[in-house]
Amino acid sequence: MSSTKHMIWLLCAGLAGCLLILVATSRYGAGVSPDSVVYLAVAENLLEGRGATHYTGEPRTLQPPLYSAVLAVLAAGEGARLEGAARVLNAALFGLILMMTGRLAYRFTRSWPMAWACAAVIAVTRPLQDAAVMAWSEPLFIFLTLLFLWGLDVYSRAPSNRLVLFLALIAAAATLTRYIGVTLIGTGVIGLFLLADGSLKRRVLQSVFFAIPATAPLLVWWIRNYSLSGTFMGQVLPSQTSFTQNLLLFGEALWASVFPLGVVSRIPSALTGGLCALIILGYALALGRRVLRAPYKLAGAQHVAAIFAGLYSALLVYTSTTTLYDAINVRLISPMFVPAVLWVGLLVHEHSFGRMRRLVTVSVIGLCVVALSVSALFIARYVQAGVPGYNHERWREGDLVAQLLAGDGPDAEVLYTNDPGALYYFAGRSAVPVPHRESLDPDQPVRDAQDWVGRWPEQDGGLLVWFEQASALRQFTREEVMSMADVEILQHYEDGFIARISRLGAGVPSH
C-alpha cells in the first residue's frame, strides 16, 4: 500500500476516533470535574469581559489560561454552550492525536505496520481516552507536544530559524496550557542543541534563540499572577506524600495505562513501582548510549521524544513530592504516554529484524485488537451511564442535583458546601468550601475537626449544601462537619441535604 493510501486511512482513523468520543459523551455531555468547572468558568468570564477569573471572582492563577481561552473563542464563534465546545474540541483533538501519532511513528521508523501499532495503542489505552471524554486541558497539551516533536523532526532534516521560532511558539502555547509545559521548553533546548548542525557556538545560539520567545509568555503570565495575588502560581499546600510513594504511584499509573484496573489492583504497588523504575532506567541507558556514540549529536528528532518523557516524568514526581495536588494517576501521566509509546515503538523496530520484526508487529497489532474490544466496553458503559464526574448518572439522577438543575436551589446570601465545583456547575452559585483537613499554616498542616469548633462557620445563618457523591479526599466526613457547628437540616435527599448552620452555641439546634 502506498504512503498516500496509508495517510488516507490514518485520516479515516482520526475521524473514527473523533466520532468515538462524541458517541461516548452523548448522554450528558463531556465529563466535568472540579478542574473542568474552573476551565468553563474562566472561559465564561473571558467571554463576558471579566478576564481570567475564577467563578468566585478571584484572579485565576493555579491554572494557565489557554485552554479556557480556546473554549471561549469556539463558543463565541459558534454561539455554542461552553460545555458543547469542550466536548467537540476534545473529540477533534483525540482524532488529530491519533493521526499525528501514526504519522510521527512512520517518520521515526519508516514502517507503516509500526505506525499503525503505535496509533492503535494510543487509541485503545486509558490515558488519552480518559482525558478526551473529560473537559480537561490534557488533549490540547498532548496535541501541542506532538506538533512540537513533528517540528523538531522537520528541523533535523532541514534546519532554519523560522522553524526554531515556530517551535518556540508551540512550547509557549504548551506552558500556557499546563505549567508542566516547561518540560517542553527544556526538551527544546536540549533537542536543538543535539540536532543543530555546525559549531558548539551555533548550537548554543539556536537553543537561546528558542528559549527566549518560548519562556516570555509564561513569564508575563507569572508577573500578572504576582501582581494580582502575590504568588506566581497560586497558593499551594505542601505535599503529604514522599518521593518513594510518588514513584510507586507513578508506576501504578503507568501500569494502569496499559492494563485494566482489575489487573492493576491485583499487583502489589511495590512491584509496579519497581517495574516503572526499571523502565525509566532502561530508557535513560538506551538514550545515553545513543548520545555517547556521537557526542552532542542525535541522528533524528525521534530520540527527543524520550527526553521529553523523561523530563516530564521527573518533574511530575518532584512536584508531587513538594506540592499538594491530585495523587499521580493516569490523567497526570497522559502527556508523556504518547511520546513514550513512540519511543518504545522505535526501540522495538530497531532491535527486531526480519521474521522477528514481523512477529513483533503482528503481536502488537493483535494485542491492540484485544484492547479495542475492552475499549468498546468502556465506551458502551459511558453511553449508558454517562462519563465520569458531574455528568455521570450517579450525580445527574440524584434528587438534590435535580432540584438544583431545575433552578430551585437554596436561597441564602452565604452558602457553604463540601463541593463548590458541583454547586456552581449545577446551580450557578458560588459557595464557601467547608474546612479541609489540610491547612495553609505550615506549623499545623493537618487540622482536627475539633479545631474548627466555635470558629466555623464564619457567618451565622448561612446554608450548607452537602453532596454525598463529593470526593472524600482530604475532606472531613459528614459526621465530623456536623460536630463542628450547630446544624438544622431543612431538606434531606438520598444524594445530600440542605441545612442552616451556625457556630456551636449560637442557638441553632444540632441534628
Please render the helix and strand layout as text:
Elements: H1 3-24, H2 34-47, H3 66-78, H4 82-109, H5 112-124, H6 126-132, H7 138-157, H8 161-175, H9 182-195, H10 200-229, H11 243-258, H12 261-265, H13 269-293, H14 304-322, H15 330-350, H16 354-385, H17 393-396, H18 399-405, E1 415-417, H19 420-427, E2 432-433, E3 462-467, H20 478-484, E4 485-493, E5 496-503
Parallel strand pairs: 1-2, 1-3
Antiparallel strand pairs: 3-5, 4-5
Helix pairs in contact: 1-4, 1-16, 2-3, 2-19, 3-4, 4-5, 4-6, 4-7, 4-15, 5-15, 5-16, 6-15, 7-8, 7-9, 7-15, 8-9, 8-10, 9-10, 9-14, 11-13, 11-14, 11-15, 14-15
Brief characterization of the structure:
This protein has 511 residues and is mainly alpha-helical. Helices cover 63% and strands 5% of the residues. The chain has a five-stranded mixed sheet, with helices on both faces.
Question: If strands are numbered along the chain, what order do they take across the biggest sheet?
Answer: 2-1-3-5-4
Shape: globular
Biggest sheet descriptor: 5 strands, mixed
Radius of gyration: 25 Å
Descriptive account of the structure:
The protein has helices at 3-24, 34-47, 66-78, 82-109, 112-124, 126-132, 138-157, 161-175, 182-195, 200-229, 243-258, 261-265, 269-293, 304-322, 330-350, 354-385, 393-396, 399-405, 420-427, 478-484; strands at 415-417, 432-433, 462-467, 485-493, 496-503. Helix content is 63%, strand content 5%. A five-stranded mixed β-sheet has the order 2-1-3-5-4, with helices on both faces. Helix 1 runs parallel beside helix 16 (354-385) and helix 4 (82-109) runs parallel beside helix 7. The protein has two domains: 3-385, no CATH class; 398-503, no CATH class. The model is unreliable at 261-266 (pLDDT under 50).
